[in-house]
Design goal:
two-stranded parallel ribbon, alpha+beta
């Protein structure tokens, strides 16, 4: 599976990266309003120019293909390492289900021993935890699955 990472920007000036299977997939999701800013949740988002596409020389397409292939390989390997770490952490974390926000707060306040937990919460609950200074890493359920 090839992953394309694009720089995005919303109308409020927030910049972030988004991952897609192809440029066409990216453009299609943008057109349908499926790409949402992780900071303000607006779907008024556009793809920003990337260094790989600025000033591209058509006559140097063979070198560009090799460079892109090498970059894709590095991204693929980094992605696989990242998800391997996510899977390892998920395997050792205690699943607290929907009690995640309460237990995260209790550990943060010292009312219960620190431990690695995983569970579910809404975007609003995750945002509130972060605003309270509690470190959380929101991930989709598919994040721990093996890439093929």
């Amino acid at each position: 599976m090839s992953i394309k990472i694009f720089d995005m920007s919303c109308t409020h000036g927030h910049r972030f990266e988004a991952w897609f299977s192809s440029l066409e997939d990216c453009d299609g999701q943008l057109a349908r309003g499926l790409v949402v800013c992780p900071y303000c949740e607006t779907s008024d988002v556009k793809r920003m120019p990337t260094a790989a596409h600025i000033g591209a020389d058509v006559s140097a397409s063979e070198d560009a293909d090799r460079t892109v292939s090498a970059q894709e390989s590095v991204v693929r390997e980094a992605t696989e390492r990242f998800f391997a770490g996510v899977r390892k952490a998920a395997e050792s974390a205690v699943d607290v289900g929907e009690d995640f926000p309460r237990q995260a707060r209790a550990m943060y306040r010292g009312a219960m021993p620190q431990r690695l937990i995983k569970g579910m919460c809404t975007r609003k609950e995750a945002r509130e935890l972060v605003e309270e200074g509690i470190g959380v890493v929101p991930l989709p359920e598919s994040a721990g699955k093996t890439l093929n």
